[in-house]
Amino acid sequence: QTRIETELTTINQQVEALDPKIRLESFSQLPLSEPTASGLAAVHFKSLTDIQSRAIPYALKGRDILGAAKTGSGKTLAFLVPVLENLYRKKWAEYDGLGALILSPTRELAIQIFEVLRKVGRNHSFSAGLVIGGKSLKEEQERLGRMNILVCTPGRMLQHLDQTAELDVYNLQMLVLDEADRIMDMGFQQTVDAIVEHLPKTRQTLLFSATQTKKVSDLARLSLQDPEYVAVHETA
Ligand code: ADP
Ligand code: MG
């Protein structure tokens, strides 16, 4: 066995043994791979925020998540850490194609997510791309076939799913909807529905929002399977 295989066996056992009801306080208490742990250390993240400590254990165990916590509570890492870990534990590699798709309502938010992904994922070997328009469709198309993780806005992503032959999503493992409330408020429901139609049904879906609205549960009903509801409320 190689060193990496030994590491994977150990992490898989630890994830299986992890009780997601127990609230952990720091990233070091989670069963994380060396590349993720060292990426988090490089950006000086140690303690888990509430939403992170409540959502990450379920997400590591492969569960769908419907998470709600206010802006600034650390939702980005609540989904990026499971994305990196779950693909790593599946030994995702260059030729496995697109493993995770992260949808964000705006270009600015997509860029922010991508920057965090680049920093925290720096010691992983996944290829990651940003699909937010702005460049020519053709320029984006050429690179899409080689990406393992994409961060995108809904309209541009659907355009590629309809028109880019190089983009193969049949193997997709994870779908993330960030700021699902804003995705709905901005009128992207039909676009997201059409994107989901392109994706394999057997996958893990993580949906995060700042508020719990009826519209979000409509979206959740369409795309989640037996989700774990994780809501962080402000306490007085
Ligand atoms: P949200 O998406 O919920 O609005 P973000 O993921 O953008 O929140 O995080 C808000 C801020 O908190 C960012 O500046 C981020 O770097 C910081 N942050 C996130 N998680 C942690 C953590 N575990 N420890 C310290 N700072 C964190
Ligand atoms: Mg956010």
Description:
It is built from ten helices and seven strands. Helix 6 (137-144) links the parallel strand 3 (128-131) and strand 4 (149-152). The chain starts with a helix and ends in a 5-residue tail after the last strand. 46% of the residues lie in helices and 13% in strands. The protein is globular, with a radius of gyration of 17 Å. The longest helix is centred in the first third of the chain and has 15 residues, at 3-17. The chain has a single domain (3-231), classed as Rossmann fold (3-Layer(aba) Sandwich). It has helices at residues 3-17, 34-42, 50-60, 75-89, 107-120, 137-144, 154-163, 180-185, 189-198, 214-223, and strands at residues 65-68, 100-103, 128-131, 149-152, 174-177, 204-209, 228-231. By secondary structure, the protein is an alpha/beta fold. This is ATP-dependent RNA helicase. RNA helicase. Residues 25-53 form the DEAD-box RNA helicase Q domain. It comes from Talaromyces proteolyticus.
